[in-house]
Amino acid sequence: MKIGITSDHAAHDLRVDLIPRLRELGHDVTDRGPASAARTNYAPWGARLAGEVAAGEFDLGIAICGSGLGISMACNKVKGIRAACVSEIYSARMARAHNNANILCFGARVVGPDVALALCQEFLTTQFEGGRHTERVAQLSQLEAGDTSFIEAAC
Ligand code: RB5
0.85 exceeded by the pTM? Predict the structure, then answer.
């Protein structure tokens, strides 16, 4: 499985720390920058990685900023992306198992390096369960496509 990882400046050091540790765990990780911790906006980094995940260049992505919030919002603006911002293991697992999330986000100012690695490992090793969750995830794609017919049908 091919994994792309990016961040803004606030999470540069955490990202650089995580990459070799993820590779040691056997993950095929491509670093998508930035190359330095110079101040930069989170939107371009998140959106570029999200586009690459949506295009199939990566199977899953990891996008990190200070809080995890801004970069997850940027990722979620890209069609086909389900980015989940998490800070504990249960949500990292559920993001994959129930929501079929394709990008994991977290905050470098929220979690430490060991928790960050554990979040990544949980996310990257959990499979989507399918079943009853398939229709639910499909409704997210319908919303993205502007099809709101399922709302009137359900509410
Ligand atoms: C940068 O200071 C910070 O605002 C950014 O990393 C992120 O937390 C935004 O959501």
Answer: yes
